[in-house]
Write a structure and sequence with these properties.
Oligomer: single chain
Helix content: 25-40%
Bound molecules: D-malate, zinc ion
Strand content: 15-25%
Number of helices: 16
Low-confidence stretches: 1-18
Length: 495
Amino acid sequence: MSGKALVRATVVAVTSASIPGQHGGRGRDAIGDLTSALIAAIGTDHVLTSADVRAGFETDWTGRYRGSSDIVVRPASTAEVSAVLTACLEHGAQVIAQAGNTGLVGGSVPRAERDHDERPVVIVSMRRLDHLGAVDTAAMQVTAGAGATLARWRDHARSAGLDTPVDFAARDVATVGGAVATNAGGSRVLRFGTMRQQVVGIEAVTADGSVIGSLSGLPKETAGLHWPSLLAGSEGTLAVITAARLRLVPLFRATITALVALDSLPAAVDLVGVLRRTVPSLDAAEIIFPAAMEVVSAHLGRAAPVTAPDGGVYLMLDCADHIDPSDSLAAALGPAAGVVDAAVTTDGAQRDRLIEFRDRITEAIGAASTAVGVPTFKLDVAVPLDALDDLLDVAQGAADTDGCRLVPFGHLAEGNLHLNHIGARSPDKIAETVLHAVASLGGTISAEHGIGVAKAAWLHLIRAPADLAAQATIRRALDPTRTLNPGVLDATGTP
Ligand code: MLT
Ligand code: ZN
């Protein structure tokens, strides 16, 4: 081979390693070839190309994040996911995994701006991978497909006398795969930890179609890299999660819920500290600020049973145990400073009605946003508990400057606030102000929703350059062709 031929061969090799099979970008022929390959991989019925059908997958739950795709595929097994990714790689397509599409940071829908090189975009819907294995009551574990909803996972565990350690309001639609990919949290984190801590085994498919991980669920194993640790929170950028082996927890049948009105945020923080130290059955401590209570009450068409004074807050407390936790909760609440009023119930139907004041806040904010014609703007952040007041001052100032309505609520034990904005005119300006404040207060710009595309530009505030570079190296190693969820978790702006 001549020297000239060798040089040319090297150039071609570098280009094709960047985006293999990119013959023709998004032209009609290219999409047609890709469609045929996907049909060969999983059959005609689950390769969706009609614009109307695709539209249902292209916008996120808030309506704020949207983009266009070329094809939606609905594989039903890990082997089919592998075949889909292999076809996408061969045809130079980008892949966005989606299941419940309840994510709030634009990570499970196509990007608003197409990649400059105009690669085809394929949404891989994981909803059909919704199998649930037999519950192992001795190991307290179960295997769940990525597309199983949290509600089905929970019902399945309960039918075997156990419960799930993670729960949140979107449980009927949100899925196990999405919850692992975003390291979701919810109301039980103070007792059992986030989704990452529940994953004892994982199975996933990398961009080249390889299946990695194990679902054996051994709680102890020191044998190299731990895939659950690496993939939980990676937001679909390193591999597509197909199934997880998940921890279960005891099912506590004695439950009590209290809606407590307090005169200040510091009083609520102190109370949660007391409860965590003295009431081991504490299962949730959700904070609701008056603006959020106002929105949800209007949405439900009924007033909360207790009222917080000006400057006050509400706490929704859950305790769950094998024996009635009422006495220990009452003993802690009785002497607590700053408690103005409390509605407490152990009755199932009454609890359900009380819990609606927490569980339906997101829905209520969504409806209020629809009414003003602007998608909700959400910032999910966490700061040390003693910095919450300062953060709220900054957030309120930013909302006042914008002229929008700030509606905060969240998970108090983790200092995790959901700062919702109804009618925000300049969301980027609000984010700039609030996220800088979060970082300088020692907090995180995402506590449980993920970075997605919504916060990628601010990731540098909490991650050092060396840290970001190391993460980019890992990403390139697993996905050298930039196939998986481009733009997500990307602080550089280069997918
Ligand atoms: C919640 O806590 O309800 C969820 O994180 C959803 C939200 O923030 O709207
Ligand atoms: Zn939350």
